[in-house]
Amino acid sequence: MNITFLIGNGFDLNLKLNTRYSDFYKYYIKNDPKDLLSKSIKEDYEMWSDLEVGLGEFLKDIDESQIEEFLDSKSTLERMLSEYLTLENNRVHIKDEKALSEEFKKKVLNFFSDFNALDKDHYHQVISATKTQINYNFITFNYTSILDTIVATAQKNCKPFGNHSAGSTGYNDAVIPPHHIHGKLTEDLILGLDNTEQILNDKLKTNPRLTNYIVKSAVNTALGEKKIDKAKEIIDKSKYICLFGLSIGDTDGMWWSYIIEWLKRDKDNRLVLFINKNTNVQLSGQEKIRFRDSNREMMLERSRCDVLETLNLIQDKIIIVPNSKIFNLENIILEEYENG
């Protein structure tokens, strides 16, 4: 059985890295100011508030004769993004490997600690009925290798990573190296759109000279590494899926749809949304319930399903955890450097 974490840029930001698109843009514009996309970003930061969404919007003013120029510029942008994020990635140092391993282990194994009493009861019932090893999986949407380093450190120092009992039998549980659904800084980095409808140019939506290179699922399939298949397999074998540091944006809509369908499949499946809103939602019962319900509805909207119909089926299976400190890691330290 899997307990799976889907990890986004909020994980790196939580470690105080400068990995926002706006941070990268400064580096990109300074180092390649004449590139096609660099010039557009400099002229209209608002349109490019989300890099991948911005690509789809930029294409509304591109004709078929400019596709190659656009793709060349996108390649330059991807190379520059890899360079910039590598600088940020290399700032990370571990203060104490064993202490980090124990810290990470404790936080992952107790991911349910902020659940309400009802959801905690359900978690303990599921675990006590699990007569197999539990694998703690990570599907990361990040290109950086920080999470990989942390997991590898925990694997080395925590043997086993965890354990649980079902009936009279004890089982050793494991943490699994992260699966990079969009590639890594040095290998198969994928940047693009979720589907052709996000190309805001009707003349280009069906042109394979563009779509084969900008729709993420098409690029993933063409690379032949079966990353989508592996991610779906991990999800299918999970009882809990936890989203941390993800904006749940439209450019990864296929995954939100898949997770909602997974949630419907089994009465015991649970989706956990760790929401960092920097707001106090503990003041009253009303505020807590409204915060929970609005985030449930947001998740369903992004999954492109019928919100009201689906909400009635699964609303109690989506657990909202505000302002969690689950991945606040004291044994990660950062080296300072001059950006750009």
Descriptive overview:
The model has no long low-confidence stretch (mean pLDDT 94). The strands form two sheets. Strands 1, 3, 4, 5, 6, 7, 8 and 9 form an eight-stranded mixed sheet that branches. It is built from 14 helices and ten strands. Helix 12 links the parallel strand 7 and strand 8. The protein is globular. Helix 2 crosses helix 5, helix 6 packs across helix 8 and helix 9 packs across helix 10. The protein is 46% helix and 15% strand. With 340 residues, the chain is of the alpha/beta class.
By DSSP, the count of extended strands is 10
Q: What's the end-to-end separation, in Å?
A: 44 Å
What percent of residues adopt helix (DSSP H or I)? 40-55%
Enumerate how many helices there are, as a single number: 14
What structural class should be given to the helix and strand makeup? alpha/beta
Order of helices and strands: EHHHHHEHHEHEEEHHHEHEHHEE
Mind describing the biggest β-sheet? 8 strands, mixed
Strand content: 5-15%
Gyration radius from CA atoms, angstroms:
21 Å
